């Protein structure tokens, strides 16, 4: 019996989708229409366990998929055609790599023999994602099955890496009847039981503080209980969702910056749990190698450039912190009391500054947090919104809280928000003005999402890139050099964007303007226009209080 030299295009596509579903756990596929990827589209559309989305913009599709990964805790696939369509997904793949979000890219490619020849819509795409994804180049030979099995086995070692399946398709794309038979398929559970960890109390200095970045919402209760038992000062990023737990109320501090630069109160060790934090203090640690940093996350990266005095624990955060709590460790009581007293005073300063400058950017953010208190999903779209929310956040947000901050501050943020909020009753996304302009195609997806969702897209219109204006080294730049960091948005009318997206447009300039947002309005673009003078006065008063 003669063995064919290669499998058919459709057989190859079905095999790829089958592995993605049964071995990786994919249940959703975002399809970007094309010609060369048609066999994959058919294979995905006909799989009984797969829900297909569609998008015309590959870059936005990738970040929408990352949003779905945040919400579902499962890998999500994006199907694209050959050529630069694949390259458009590089930003999302990089974000997924550093965030530990397993984005699966399945691309149609031209036949392997065409590589390097410059044929139309043909590039050398087999290794286009480099170290950022586990890749398999499936050219149609009998070895393809083994390549797929090997890739899935390697992925299962961490379950956090992006995956790239590159499928070479030959002409004609379909040969004969387009028939797909997956047989009897059962919904396989690909989850794993998380192990428990034994942690030695001797691994921690007496003056140890805690930093909590993004953590899984299902872990929050246990993490909060463990940290309350430890009784240490905790900086919990707004994306951690820990502020809602009353047992932590007296342990939460606004920032570690003031303590890192005060030798009398500086911690000897910081334990980071979960995602890499957005606070400025985290970057300050680069120049403070005397502070031991222990980074605990499922991704297993330092989160810092420095190597000296950094310990990396690739662990399940909830299980690890419970092991620490059970170890019997107790910190330096006098130091803890001094830190918490100073933190309480700093919170009082923040409240006073907000009260004095209610139309400042931070003052309006404080009011926004109250307005979003009923949100099922809150998404903070860049470092500016996260840092300002961090200053004023209390226990307002009890739902799911997400952010994408791994590799780029503004790329694909609206798309990730929409993906994370599928099925939510009320969803709030907070973005800078440039961030919004960078992802204009994102709201195109809303019509495919549950129409019952109430959407709130908040745009902080401060003239573009204002976070750069507070960088300490700018004083040494010329006016021309300074201007290169500032991208003015005064030529943009966000009312036009609201009309483009069929949203109500509400301009917020005072705290009372939030009352103009009605619960009956299903889609609202909330444009926050802070008072520039009050914003400057806020930051001046805040900085003065920390000297």
What does this structure look like?
It is a single chain. This protein has 547 residues and is an alpha/beta fold. Strands 2-1-3-4-6-5 form a six-stranded parallel sheet, sandwiched between helices. Helix content is 33%, strand content 16%. It has helices at 9-22, 38-45, 58-72, 84-87, 90-99, 144-156, 220-230, 257-260, 280-284, 317-325, 333-356, 361-371, 383-392, 413-420, 433-438, 479-485, 494-500, 532-546; strands at 28-32, 51-55, 76-80, 103-109, 134-138, 163-168, 208-212, 234-236, 269-273, 292-297, 310-314, 377-380, 400-403, 426-432, 454-460, 504-508, 523-528. The chain has 18 helices and 17 strands. α1 (9-22) packs parallel to α6 (144-156), α3 (58-72) packs parallel to α14 and α7 packs parallel to α10 (317-325). The chain has three domains: 9-168, 3-Layer(aba) Sandwich (Rossmann fold); 201-343, Rossmann fold; 357-546, 3-Layer(aba) Sandwich (Rossmann fold), CATH 3.40.50.970. The model has no long low-confidence stretch (mean pLDDT 92). It is globular, with a radius of gyration of 25 Å.
Jot down its keywords.
single chain, 547 residues, alpha/beta, Rossmann fold, 3 domains, six-stranded parallel sheet, 17 strands, globular
CATH T-level fold name of the largest domain: Rossmann fold
Task: Give the overall pLDDT as a whole number.
Answer: 92
* CATH H level, superfamily name of the largest domain: Thiamin diphosphate (ThDP)-binding fold, Pyr/PP domains
Helical residue percent? 25-40%
């Amino acid at each position: 019996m003669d063995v064919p030299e290669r499998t058919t295009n459709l057989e190859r596509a079905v095999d790829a989708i089958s592995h993605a579903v049964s071995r990786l756990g994919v249940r959703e596929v975002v399809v970007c229409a094309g010609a060369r990827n048609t066999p994959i589209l058919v294979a995905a559309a006909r799989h009984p366990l797969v829900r297909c989305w569609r998008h015309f913009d590959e870059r936005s599709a990738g970040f929408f998929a990352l949003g779905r990964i945040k919400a579902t805790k499962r890998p999500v696939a994006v199907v694209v055609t050959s050529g630069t369509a694949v390259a458009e997904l590089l930003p999302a793949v990089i974000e997924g790599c550093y965030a530990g979000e397993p984005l699966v890219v399945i691309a149609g490619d031209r036949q392997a023999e065409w590589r390097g020849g410059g044929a139309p819509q043909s590039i050398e795409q087999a290794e286009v994602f480099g170290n950022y994804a586990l890749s398999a180049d499936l050219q149609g030979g009998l070895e393809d099955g083994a390549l797929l099995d090997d890739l899935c086995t390697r992925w299962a070692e961490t379950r956090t890496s992006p995956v790239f399946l590159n499928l070479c398709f030959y002409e004609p794309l379909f040969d004969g009847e387009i028939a797909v038979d997956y047989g009897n398929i059962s919904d396989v559970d690909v989850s794993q039981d998380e192990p428990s960890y034994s942690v030695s109390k001797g691994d921690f200095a007496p003056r140890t503080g805690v930093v909590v970045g993004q953590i899984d919402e299902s872990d929050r209760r246990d993490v909060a209980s463990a940290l309350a038992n430890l009784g240490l000062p905790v900086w919990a990023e707004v994306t951690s969702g820990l502020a809602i737990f009353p047992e932590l109320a007296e342990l939460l501090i606004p920032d570690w910056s003031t303590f890192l630069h005060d030798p009398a109160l500086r911690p000897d060790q910081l334990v980071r749990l979960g995602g890499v934090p957005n606070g400025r203090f985290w970057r300050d640690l680069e120049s403070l190698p005397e502070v031991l940093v222990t980074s605990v996350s499922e991704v297993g990266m330092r989160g810092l450039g420095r190597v000296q005095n950094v310990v990396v624990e690739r662990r399940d955060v909830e299980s690890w912190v419970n092991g620490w709590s059970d170890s019997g460790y107790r910190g330096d009581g006098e130091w803890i009391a001094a830190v918490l007293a100073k933190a309480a005073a700093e919170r009082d300063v923040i409240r006073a500054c907000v009260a004095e400058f209610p139309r400042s950017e931070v003052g309006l953010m404080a009011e926004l947090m109250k307005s979003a208190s009923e949100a099922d999903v809150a998404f903070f779209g860049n470092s500016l919104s996260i840092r300002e929310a961090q200053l004023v956040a209390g226990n307002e947000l009890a739902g799911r809280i997400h952010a994408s901050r791994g590799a780029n501050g503004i790329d694909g943020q609206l798309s990730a928000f929409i993906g994370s909020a599928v099925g939510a009753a009320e969803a709030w996304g907070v973005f800078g003005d440039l961030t919004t302009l960078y992802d204009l195609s994102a709201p195109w997806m809303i019509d495919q999402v549950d129409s019952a969702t109430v959407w709130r897209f908040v745009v902080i219109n401060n003239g573009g890139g204002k976070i750069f204006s507070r960088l300490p080294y700018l004083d040494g730049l010329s006016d021309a050099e300074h201007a290169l960091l500032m991208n003015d948005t005064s030529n943009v009318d966000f009312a036009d964007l609201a009309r483009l997206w069929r949203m109500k447009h509400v301009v917020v300039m005072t705290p009372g303007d939030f009352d103009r947002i009605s619960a009956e309005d299903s889609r609202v673009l909330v444009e926050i226009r802070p008072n520039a003078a009050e914003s400057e006065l806020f930051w001046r008063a805040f900085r003065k209080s920390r000297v």
